[in-house]
Write a structure and sequence with these properties.
This protein has 135 residues and is mainly α. Helix content is 56%, strand content 8%. A two-stranded antiparallel ribbon has the order 1-2.
């Protein structure tokens, strides 16, 4: 028995239509073993930034121009193109969010410095507290 064949049988046909008996085959859906969320989506919010959108479109146009014209070669080229496309989109996405990430790191540093200053002020004698906070 084949695991992908659900049903296989010869169907009867009304007399006089044909002398053949058609075989009907029901196949199972070809699906992966485990269903999951699928591949990660491309970060398309980068297209909202005009400079990044232009860079992405120019890159994609260059890749499309280099695509093979033969169907068989194109089928072999496609998976690599999708990998490169995802990598380029991620790189541009990271470039878009790098300033935000840097400011978050700086905010965390300043918060940590402020917390240390208040801890020092809390540990200092009452008259020395204002000087400890100003450091």
């Amino acid at each position: 028995t084949l695991p992908h064949v659900l049903r296989c049988c010869a169907e009867s046909v009304p007399a006089g239509l044909t002398d053949h008996r058609p075989v009907v085959l029901q196949l199972a859906l070809a699906a992966p073993d485990g269903w999951g969320p699928g591949g990660r989506r491309l970060p398309v919010r980068l297209l909202a930034a005009p400079d990044l959108a232009t860079a992405f479109r120019e890159w994609a146009a260059g890749q499309a121009a280099a695509a093979p014209q033969d169907g068989v070669d194109f089928i072999g080229w496609w998976p690599g193109f999708v990998k490169r496309l995802r990598a380029k989109a991620r790189a541009l996405h990271m470039r878009q969010h790098a300033p935000v990430a840097a400011s978050l790191v700086e905010d965390r540093r300043s918060q940590a410095n402020m917390a240390r200053a208040f801890d020092q002020a809390a540990a200092a004698p009452p008259l020395a507290a204002p000087a400890a906070i100003q450091q």
